Amino acid sequence: MRIVLYQPEIPPNTGNIARLCAATATPLHLIEPLGFKIDDKHLKRAGLDYWPSVNLSVHPHWAALEAALNSLTPRPRIVLTSARGGTPHHLFRFEPGDAIVLGPETRGLPEAIFDLCPLRVRIPVLPAVRSLNLSTSAGVLLYEALRQTGGLDSLP
Q1: Positive or negative CA dihedral for 126, 128, 130, 135?
Q2: Which residues contact 151 (CB under 8 A, 6 or more apart)?
Q3: pTM of the model
Q4: Strand, helix or coil for residue 130
Q5: Residue 8 carries which DSSP code?
Q6: I need a surface site. Which of 11, 57, 108, 155 has the fewest CB within 10 A?
Q7: Torsion angle of alpha carbons 44, 98, 5, 113, nearest 10°?
Q8: Tell me, what CATH number does 42's domain have?
Q9: Which residues of 76-87 are buried (b: 16+ CB within 10 A; e: fewer)?
């Protein structure tokens, strides 16, 4: 699996997701522009001392992420997340190596990205709640994907 954060805005969320990625040996991809500097103290604090264990790639734009994924064999599927549409995560069929893309906290993924990728997943929530926190969503989706694909079997 891979976690991709498209233009993340809040340092503690990204730091928490980095810690999640370190705990599961999941590569983390960040797509610029970022809403913070990569050496932001809040980012480092949320990731604690796990940053050296994070397989981190920073891409200047969406096309650079696609180029990086296209260079891999097999090429990972791109799975977009949306609070408003897509297959509920527990019914979606994840595949090993999927790149799970989460959008910026305040606006989600842009329509232009949705136009490029047909696979969409969502986490069901009650209508009174707009969406879950970004780092919570990343954890829910990653662990479900790992559960489905046997990725949890390699964790102690």
Answers
A1: negative
A2: 1, 24, 96, 145
A3: 0.94
A4: coil
A5: -
A6: 155
A7: 170
A8: 3.40.1280.10
A9: bbbbbbbeeebe
Question: CB atoms < 10 A from the CB of 127, how many?
Answer: 5
CA-CA-CA-CA dihedral for 46, 103, 66, 124, to nearest 10: 100
Strand-by-strand arrangement of the 2-6 sheet = 56-59, 28-31, 2-6, 99-102, 78-81, 120-122, 87-88
Could you tell me which of 104, 103, 106 has the C-alpha nearest to residue 121? Answer: 103
Please tell me the total count of domains within the chain. Answer: 1
Q: How far apart are CA 150 and CA 10, in angstroms?
A: 31
Low-confidence ranges of the chain (pLDDT < 50): none
- Mean pLDDT rounded to a whole number for the chain: 92
83-120 pLDDT, tens digit per residue, is: 878 999 999 999 999 999 999 999 999 999 999 999 99
In which domain, by residue range, is 85 found?
A: 2-154
Identity at 95, one-letter amino acid code? E
Residue 128, Cβ density class (10 Å: 0-12 exposed, 13-18 middle, ≥19 buried): exposed
Task: Centre a 10 Å sphere on the Cβ of residue 149 and count the other Cβ atoms it contains.
Answer: 16
